[in-house]
Amino acid sequence: MAKVSGNTHTQSQMNHHANQSNPNNSAHTAAANNHANQCNPNNAAHHNTHK
């Protein structure tokens, strides 16, 4: 897992990174759903990533 440094990132960026790693957070669910959609050839998001 990648680490985010306070020397190179704002507090907002660090919070966003932590939220994406927390399975109880909606940002985590959104990121997982987006990844699944991009891997699914029956989803429009899949076609948008393979242009």
TrEMBL record:
Q: Where is this region: Disordered?
A: 1-51
Instruction: Please note every region of biased composition (Low complexity).
Output: 22-51
- Compositionally biased spans, kind Polar residues: 1-21
Q: Which domain of life is it from?
A: Bacteria
Q: What is this protein called?
A: Uncharacterized protein
